[in-house]
Automatic annotation (TrEMBL):
Name of the featured protein: Ribose 5-phosphate isomerase B
Similarity comment: family membership: Belongs to the LacAB/RpiB family.
Gene Ontology MF annotations: ribose-5-phosphate isomerase activity
Pfam family, one: LacAB_rpiB
The organism of origin for this protein: Kaistella gelatinilytica
Length: 143
């Protein structure tokens, strides 16, 4: 069973819970928090989730905040993370196919929970195409 990391801030908490429930039984989900709608600092939850993907403990990751930007920026500070901000299913599909994205960021304030689930499903079920894209992905890491 594929292992998935999930994390959110207070703005993404509700969607995190909805997505977790949807994924139950299909994937092994590790929840890195937050655990309520109380105001928090998203890096406190994103960094552990990203580290788990970077270290291979989890295969892929899902991050949620109000805009998706903060969690994406934070995750992408990790050398082994390629986090894509997705607000449409096609973006999630292309992020996996062309960029081998291993995390996605969802903007809870700008998409419905139904669309969030569709995006997550597309992300989790799409494979990296490799081929001509592999050379480009190999050039992403700077250090």
């Amino acid at each position: 069973m594929k292992k998935i990391a999930i994390a959110a801030d207070h703005a993404g908490f509700e969607y995190k819970e909805i997505i977790k429930k949807y994924l139950e039984g299909k994937y092994e989900v590790q929840d890195f928090g937050t655990y309520s709608e109380d105001s928090v600092d998203y890096p406190d939850f994103v960094h552990p989730a990203a580290t788990s993907v970077e270290d291979g403990i989890n295969e892929l990751g899902i991050l949620i905040c109000g805009s998706g930007e903060g969690v994406a920026i934070t995750a992408n500070k990790h050398q082994g993370i390629r986090c894509a901000l997705c607000w449409e299913t096609e973006l999630a599909e292309l992020a996996r196919q062309h960029n081998n994205a291993n995390m996605i960021a969802l903007p809870a304030r700008f998409i419905s929970s139904e669309l969030a689930i569709d995006i997550v499903e597309k992300f989790l079920t799409t494979d990296f195409e490799g081929g001509r894209h592999q050379n480009r992905v190999d050039k992403i890491a700077f250090c």
